[in-house]
Amino acid sequence: MAEVDRIKSIADPVQRALEVARMEDELAEVHAELRSVRRAAVLELRQAGWSHRQIGEALGIHPNRAQQIAEGRSR
User: Fold this and answer.
1) Among 11, 16, 27, 69, which residue has the fewest nearby CB atoms (within 10 Å)?
2) Domain of life here (predicted)?
3) Is residue 38 within 8 Å of residue 70, measured between CB atoms?
4) Residue 68 has pLDDT above 80, yes or no
5) CA–CA separation, 7 vs 63, rounded Å?
6) pTM metric for this prediction
7) Looking at residue 1, what is its pLDDT?
8) Neighbouring residues of 41: CB distance < 8 A, sequence distance ≥ 6
9) pLDDT tens per residue, range 14-67
10) Using CA atoms, how far apart are residues 65 and 75, in angstroms rounded to an integer?
11) Helix, strand, coil: what percent of the chain each, to 5?
């Protein structure tokens, strides 16, 4: 949250808004990469013979969500 506090402290509203936009773009890239890592992990479990139900139980998600992740579908 230090980064958010830093952005909040930018005096110039234009610069503050631009910094928020830059940070949102960066976070979107990180989010996409994390989804890819999670999908790879789920696919690895599927290749090891795990069912969507087993994966869902292990990850604390519904089996349908485990299947969606394996298929590359986002919310």
Assistant:
1) 11
2) Bacteria
3) no
4) yes
5) 39
6) 0.80
7) 87
8) none
9) 999 999 999 999 999 999 999 999 999 999 999 999 999 999 999 999 999 999
10) 9
11) 75, 0, 25
